[in-house]
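---------- Forwarded message ----------

FYI, see the DUF1653 domain-containing protein record below. Original note from H. follows.
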Amino acid sequence: MQYRHFKGGIYDFVCEATLESDPTVTMIVYRAANGSIWTRPSAVFFELVEVDGAMVQRFTRIEEAK
């Protein structure tokens, strides 16, 4: 599945992972268009951020056409 970052980039969701140093933290692993791999804590990946005075999702799932 793909997600759009609030700044416009498109990222492929790779998987969820457990942070070794703190097993209570779930990490989201995702890939940029250029192939680079990134991780963020799930709570940060799915949080709301303020953009031009409005709260928006940091990453929004791109729905596939059926």
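H. also flagged this: The chain is about 5% helix and 55% strand.
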